[in-house]
């Protein structure tokens, strides 16, 4: 859907569990995009420079977790929108000069500003749960590249989560796919982070290889062979036979 200025806008339902978080992220993205020239969509905007950004920064850790969820959903939307505009431009013979394609710069700017939100929030020690982490790693992997994504912050989040909760087979596979994308992108930092992810996967015990927390094992039962009276019934039986 497009807004009053003809640009695409992210739509969400008022009964969405993340409606309040979507609203705040959308507000920041809209204000941040409007604060820079259209042809400088790539220009960074400090969250502290805008009221909506300061509200994002002031969020509690728990709300920060929800804001990351909302921002990831919006980042996927903007990335998919960018792909549609690019594909249409290629079909129209304009693929070699995307900057002149209507909506391209605005969509790219919205995506970049959404990535800024995710990166800044992930610098904090957020209480990400297993689902949060899997969704984060899936999003980082499905793009097929690592350029411009918050890969360092995501790696730190993986480290924090696994240090506290361990790692199961699904999280391990998601992390390994993430490491593969990092290596595919190349670059010193990406390769370093890929090695760090591999070390996280290798160094921690698997959750399904450990006993469940609080699981009580039965107390050992002494063997009859160690009881001094174990031969008494046999001796009594022998006397009766002999008598």
Summarize the helices and strands and which ones pair or pack:
Blueprint: H1 19-34, H2 51-57, H3 61-91, H4 104-122, H5 130-142, H6 151-165, H7 169-185, H8 188-203, H9 232-242
Helix pairs in contact: 1-2, 1-3, 1-4, 3-4, 3-5, 5-6, 5-7, 6-8, 7-8
Sketch the major β-sheet.
none
- The oligomeric status of these chains comes to single chain
Tell me the number of structural domains.
2
The percentage of residues in β strands lies in: under 5%
Helical fraction equals 55-70%
Q: Point out poorly predicted stretches.
A: 209-214, 223-243
N→C terminal distance:
104 Å
> Rounded to an integer, what's the Rg over CA atoms?
28 Å
Return the structural class.
Answer: mainly alpha
pLDDT averaged residue by residue: 86
Shape summary:
globular
Report on this structure:
With 243 residues, the protein is mostly helical. It folds into two domains: 127 residues, no CATH class; 81 residues, no CATH class. The protein contains nine helices and no strands. The C terminus is likely disordered.
Write out key terms for the chains shown:
globular, 9 helices, 243 residues, mainly alpha, 0% strand, 2 domains
